[in-house]
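Input.
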Amino acid sequence: MTSTSAWTSQELDSIEHAEELEIASLRRDGELGSRRTIWVVRVGDGIYVRSVNGPGSDWYRGTRARQEGRIRAGGVGKDVTIIDADDEVNDAVDTAYRTKYGHYAAYIIKAITSPEASSTTMRLEPR
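Output.
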């Protein structure tokens, strides 16, 4: 059994209220890749991200190699494990995206909550 450290309440709140998150995937050679700015939501005690462009986007494909990376959002910088989320959480993640980013144009919200984007939902766990 592996033990993972959980987010602190302060980290969860800070990341939840950040407009954007920067993520850099750990490459096969152990170096961090380029940072990408993406949207981030909180569902319960979980932090979730998606690729608005689906599984074909470069940054998402980069997460597949080692499923580790580094994030920065709301003053929080952490090394993370990137875990494919269970399909059961997708409705809650959709709702979180609509609530948090609903002030953007409808077509943008439709893209981030599309089946293609939903297929890339990932949970970030601190390590």
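Residues 9-126 form a domain with the Pnp Oxidase; Chain A fold (CATH 2.30.110.10).
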